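Bug: C-alpha cell stream looks shifted between consecutive jobs. Job 1:
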Amino acid sequence: MGFKLDSLWKPPELNPVTLKAQSIPLLNPFNVYGRVFHFAWLGYFFCFWAWYAFQPLLTKTLRADLRLSQADVANSNVISLVATLLARLTAGTACDWIGPRWTMVALLSAGAIPIALAGTVTTANGLIVLRFFVGMIGACFVPTVVWTAGFFDKNVVGTACALTAGFGTGGIGVTYFVMPAVFDSLVQHQKIAPHVAWRVAFIVPFILILAIILGTIFLCPDTPTGKWSSRHLAHQRRTDTRDAFFSTVRDRKLPASTGSHDDNINLKSAQSTQHHEDPDYEAQIDEFDLVNAASWELVKKPTIHDSAQAIFSFPTLALAVALFCTFGPELSINSFLGAYYAQSFPSLGQTGSGNWAAMYGLLNFVFRPLGGIISDAFYRWTRSLWAKKILITAFGILLGINMILIGVTDQHDKGSRIGLVTLLAFATEAGSGAIFSLTPHVHPTSTGLITGLIASMADLGGIVYLLVARYNGTNYAKVFWILGAANMAGHLAVAWIRPIPKNQLGGR
C-alpha cells in the first residue's frame, strides 16, 4: 500500500483480523487511531519535559542557588537515569499485564508528584533524591511504543513508532527553550526573585502532565478491540468464526481426513489444485493464514519460560546493544551539551547555550520519524527484515564517526559546531527510529517485555556514558571521541545477528 495524502485525515483501513490501522490518521484526532497516536506521543513528550526540566537551569541558576559542584550536577544526572533504568525494566512487564495505557497513566502520575515538589529542594542531596523520583517518568517511552504497536499494522508500525517516539523525544528540545523562557519571564516581567522564580517554573510541567493523564484515562481505549483484559476473547471470537467457516469448506471441498495435521496439508493442496474451480478459495486460505498469524502476534501474559526465551535470544541482544550505543549517547549528550556550548562560547550565557542545545533535541521531531519511515520503506521494497537491520548498523557507524570528529576537532567555530551536532542528531535520532521500527517484529507476543528491556539498555548506556563524562570533568571533547569509538565497536559486534529468531512464526 503506497502513501496517499488523504490517509493523513481519513479513517484508516483496518487489518480485518487484528483491527490494527494500515495508515496513520495524523491530522484526525477525532478518529480513535489518530487520538491514541496523539496521546501516546504527548504522554512521552511531557514525560521528557519533566524529566529534563532541570538541565537548562542547572548551567547557572540552580547551581548558584543550591551551591552545586560539578560532581553534584553529574551525580544528579546519573541518578535520574538510574531511576529510569529501573522503571523501564518493570514497565515492560506492566504493559503485558495491565496494558500500555494504564502503565502510561501510572508512570505519568508517579512523575507528576515529585515534579510539583521541585520547589521544595534546598540542598544538593535533596536535588539528587528528587531527581531519582522524577526520573521514573522516563519509563513512559515503553508504553508509548507498546501502545502504538498495538494500534498500527506491520506495514506502518515502524513509521508510527518512530513518529510517536520522535515527537515525544522532541520534548527535550522544547524543555531547553521553555524552562529558561518561563524563568526569564517570571524574573523580568513578574519581578520575582530568581531564588523563587525557578521553583515556580516547575508548576508548568505538572499542570500539563495532569491534563494528559486525564485525557488518556477518559478519551482513549486500551486496544483496537476494547479492554486489555478482554483482548484474547476478541481474538477467540474471530478464531471461532474462522473454524466454523473452514469446517464447512472441508465438508464441501475436501476428502475425509484423519487428523488436524492432514487437514492443514489438504487445505494447502486445495489452494493449488482447486483455485481454478473456486476463485474465492485462495482468498479464503489467505484469511485462514491471517488469523493464524494474528494468534502468533497476540501479546500474552508473561510466563517464566516465555520471558526467558524472549530475553535470552540473540536478536533481543542485538537490539539492546544497538540502543545502548544509539539512544544511550543521546540521553547523556542532552545532559551536558548546554554546558559544552557555554564552555566553548561564553557569550551565549545560560539562555543562549540552552537554546542551541535545544536544537539537538528538537530535531527529534524530524530525524527520529525519518529513521522509521526509511526503515519501513526499505522493508516494503525488499520484503526482508535484514534491510531494517542493515540500516541500523549503517546509522551506528555514521554516529561513531561523527562523535569522533566532534571530539578530535573540538570546534570553536559556532557554525562548524552546529553543523556537526546536526549530523550527530541525524545519526542518533534516525538510528533510534530505525531500531524501534524493527522492535515490534521481534518476539511479538512479548512486545512489552522486549520494549522495556531494550529501552532500559538505552538508560544503561546513558549512565555509562555519563560516568565517562563525570570522570573527565569538563573535557567534553575527549568524552565525545571516547563514546564515538565505543559506539562503532558495539554496533559492529552485533551486526551479524539475525533480525528475528530463525523459527519465529509471527512478526514477519
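Job 2, same session, no restart:
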Amino acid sequence: MASRSHIYRGATVEDLDPPPALSTNPSDSISTALMSAYERDYTHLTVVSQDTRALLGYLSIPRLKQLLKDGVVEDVDPVEKAMLKFRRKGNVYKVITMDTPLEELEDFFNGGVKGNDPQDFAVVTDTSRRFVLGVATRSDLEQFVRRRPA
C-alpha cells in the first residue's frame, strides 16, 4: 500500500463500508465464537463484557485456529482463555471512527499507535468510544485501493 493521499482522495473509513462488528462474550465457548466467525467470514471478533458491553479485547481467528491445533485451548473452553485483552492502563489508543481518513488508517496498520507495532485490524467506534460500529482490516483497505479507479 502506497502511503500517498492521492490514492485515497479524501476517502474515510466509512467509504470502506466496514461490516458491523461481531462481538462475543468472554464466557461464550470457543466453538460458538468460531462458528459465528465462519458463518460471516470474519477474521476478527470483538470481545465485550456481558454486563456492560465494554470492549475487553478481541479474538483473532487465525491465531485461535493455531491455538486449537497446538492444543493450547479446546473448542469447549471459554473465549476468555484465547482472547487477546486490550491493555488499558497507561496506554493511549488511536481512535478510529467512520470519519478517520484512510491515510490515518494506513498509518495505524503500518505502525500502530506508537509507530512500532503493525496492526492487522482496527476496531471502528464512535468518537466517544462507547459503541463498536465495525471492524476494518488491512485487507479491506487493500481491496478499496484495487477497486478505486486511478
